[in-house]
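Quick one:
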Amino acid sequence: MLLTGAAALVGIVVIAFAMLSTGQVSTADLKTPADPTPKSLWDGRAIGPANAPATLVVYEDFQCPACDAFTTQMEPQLVRDYVEPGKLRIVYKDFLIIGPESLDAAVAARCAGDQGLFWPYHDYLFANQKGENKGAFKRDRLIAIGRAVGVDEAAFSACLDTQAPAQATQAETSEGRAAGVDATPTMFLNGTKIRGVPAYLDLRKAIDAIVSAASPASSTGAGTSPGASSSTSP
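Output:
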């Protein structure tokens, strides 16, 4: 029994050493999102129906603390109050502003999106912020997040090394800058710019006004705003 226990301990040490030497991060080291985006709402890099009367385009940086506050505190409430009832569509847009890990995280989210897993990856990124450019989104952690959400790891890793997602992220950032974005988060509610995180009551009033104006013919579609189409990638 002593020998068996010793062998097991040696095995654990060997596995731990192997993970450290390869730089592999365990999914156990990651925080699980407290309020994940419902799968039934996923539509590429958007959630909610394309013909919702209100569309909220949100430009964010995955390292931005204010973006984290919006995503983890306000967005779930918007989902329950407006997205699930079909009144609101939320479109995610990249806007790089903080540093190199912002680009790395955005690229990884796009690579997960290629496998239909943008939203769970998005949720994991915001749940695992850990300071700006301090290693929270270094490659091994991005791969671990991919593992946690169920990506094909080989395809995901290969995608990280391609130029297309980085170019698309940078192009979307340029698109935001042309639309007047200079900070994150910046939102466009049916084309009306909202800088920063608004009070929930104020945002609710604005959405309610749009929904009321669209009734009973709310199927006429969302207002014109940057990136409001059902295609959310350049």
